[in-house]
Write a structure and sequence with these properties.
The complex is a heterodimer of chains A (299) and B (207).
Chain A (H helix, E strand, L loop, with lengths): L8 E4 L16 E6 L8 H9 L26 E7 L7 E7 L8 H5 L6 E4 L4 E3 L9 H5 L6 E2 L6 E2 L5 H5 L5 H5 L5 E5 H17 L6 E3 L9 E5 L18 H6 L3 H23 L21
Parallel strand pairs in A: 2-11
Antiparallel strand pairs in A: 1-5, 2-9, 3-4, 5-6, 7-8, 10-11
Chain B lengths: L4 E3 L3 H25 L13 H26 L7 H8 L1 H5 L14 H23 L11 H31 L5 H4 L2 E3 H7 L1 H8 L3
Antiparallel strand pairs in B: 1-2
The chains are: A alpha+beta (299), B mainly alpha (207).
Chain lengths: 299, 207
């Protein structure tokens, strides 16, 4: 999405000065996806391509319902289908609508080297400002959920915007509006957490004893959450066992930056002062002046 | 009377050195630009972020090709020998500018050899990790944790290489008469006697 001069930017990639945040009264928003209500109809995928005016390549049927089989630069959400056996003999068919989680602590934004290519708004939406994107792929490395996709055509990264343009004018994301079973809801983060916990409780009463809200603390919580039937085993539906920014990315974009700059600047400064204190090594035959100091001056 | 000159580098060595030097500066600037936000302005002379991202790997590959030539020509002279240990013991004395107390050295002293080998290993690490990270060609084929490790190692190796190059350039500024070895290919005899007496003996034998 292009910037709409929203004046509510809480974080901006590769930026060391304050962001425009004069307008930060917006409540934090969240989308809640209830796995137990999803029927896998893919209306959300259609709504996403419709609202965002995206037309992905028509792919091939690979023998399962996943179509397209993965997120792409032009498919910002996909339904993923899982055939699982949480308990022996207890076959279940689980469907997860995949897409950006809009992390409170976004790994993509932390990793991004291009100023303003990724922003986080006061309402919690993490958006790619694609005209600033340089196509380096650092966001892919920063993301704990394997979401950003880089276009081979324009070398820009793309992902779900949580319909930041719709939300900015008080509307719900396109997928939420479309969902025929009410599996996707949208509201303030607090409302969605409360509703998700209520739904998890209802599922627990109906025998899904490990049902729960997926709002991973490792990234400070997310603005897209799930109600999972088996929240104790997120890997069953392709979610990471530990949803957090990789320690390697944290070191690379954390302590390594000031240490490296200090090291390189330090080498310069050390050389400068060494020269000023010790002076050059030279041979008198090469024309150097005899500058042996008087004894008491040599300190 | 002009001083007698001794040849220290052949033209092939000098030209590969300068190819490495030029591509190093460009690769370092375009890389640093993407490493720290306060250095992003360094993308400007390259034509912006997209251009820096595109040019950086090409510059890096040119640099390693140039260094390969240097390596083939110079590695024998940079083998660390028992005599280097003696020099290492006195290295602090050298840093204080007390040249007289240093054991005589051949073509390269211990510190120069260390600089050479740190450059070799950091360049090798940069080449391997850089190839892994190369978008859109190689990176998309690899598991994400390999890429994360590569990007961290790439940054660490780059900082090590840059620090060593700063030392390398400083040594040339510090030891007067050194730069002409690379700009002209020759050094004065008195420079050789002062800084590399054993090498001086070797090259003046029978003259």
């Amino acid at each position: 999405m292009s910037t709409l001069q929203s004046l509510d930017v809480l974080a901006r990639s590769a930026t060391t000065v304050p962001t425009p945040q004069v307008r930060t009264r917006a409540p934090e928003v969240a989308k809640l996806i209830d796995e137990s209500k999803c029927i896998g109809c893919k209306a959300c995928q259609v709504a996403c391509m419709s609202w965002n005016d995206l037309r992905d390549e028509v792919g091939d049927n690979v023998g399962v319902f996943d179509n397209p089989t993965n997120l792409t630069p032009k498919s910002w959400t996909v339904m993923r289908f899982f055939e699982v056996e949480p308990e022996p003999g207890g076959f279940e068919w689980l469907i997860r609508k995949d897409g950006c989680f809009h992390c409170e602590d976004p790994g993509c934004l932390k990793a991004c080297p291009a100023p303003g290519a990724i922003v986080k708004y006061a309402n919690g939406i993490v958006d790619f400002i694609s005209e600033h994107c340089i196509g380096c792929g650092y966001c892919v490395k920063g993301c704990p959920f394997d979401i950003p996709r880089i276009s081979a055509t324009d070398n820009k990264a793309y992902k779900c915007t949580l319909c930041s343009d719709r939300v900015a004018v008080g509307r719900e994301p396109a997928c939420v509006k479309t969902c025929p079973t009410g599996a996707i809801s949208f509201g303030t983060k607090a409302e969605m957490v409360a509703y998700g916990e209520q739904r998890a409780g209802e599922l627990q009463e109906r025998g899904y004893q490990h049902a729960g809200l997926y709002n991973p603390e490792g990234v400070g919580g997310t603005h897209v959450m799930y109600v999972l039937k088996h929240a104790d085993q997120p890997t069953m539906v392709g979610l990471p066992a530990v949803a957090a920014i990789s320690p390697m990315v944290a070191v690379w974009k954390g302590v390594a930056k000031p240490l490296a700059v200090a090291g390189m600047v330090g080498a310069f400064v050390a050389g400068f002062f060494h020269y000023m204190k010790v002076g050059p090594i030279e041979d008198k035959a090469d024309g150097a002046a005899d500058d042996q100091p008087v004894k008491e001056d040599a300190r | 009377m002009s001083p007698r000159l001794l040849r220290r580098y052949q033209d092939g060595e000098r030209m590969s050195h300068w190819l490495v030097a030029l591509t190093f500066v460009l690769a370092a600037l375009s890389g640093l630009a993407l490493f720290h936000p306060s250095l992003f302005f360094l993308t400007v002379p390259f034509g912006g972020g997209q251009w820096s991202r595109f040019l950086h790997p090409l510059l890096g590959i040119l640099m390693t090709l140039g260094f390969l030539v240097l390596f083939v020509k110079l590695w024998r002279d940079n083998r660390i020998t028992p005599a280097d240990r003696e020099w290492r013991k006195h290295a602090l004395r050298m840093l204080r500018g007390d040249k007289a107390g240093m054991p005589p050295v051949g073509k390269y002293n211990y510190a120069q050899k260390v600089v050479f080998w740190v450059m070799v290993w950091s360049l090798l690490a940069l080449l391997v990790t850089g190839l892994l990270l190369w978008r859109p060609w190689i990176a998309p084929l690899l598991p994400i944790d390999v890429l994360r490790a590569a990007v961290l190692l790439h940054a660490v190796s780059a900082v090590v290489l840059i620090a060593v190059v700063i030392m390398h350039v400083y040594a040339v500024i510090w030891v007067k008469g050194t730069s002409r070895a690379m700009t002209r290919g020759t050094v004065t005899e008195s420079w050789a006697k002062l800084n590399h007496p054993q090498w001086h003996q070797e090259v003046t034998k029978g003259r």
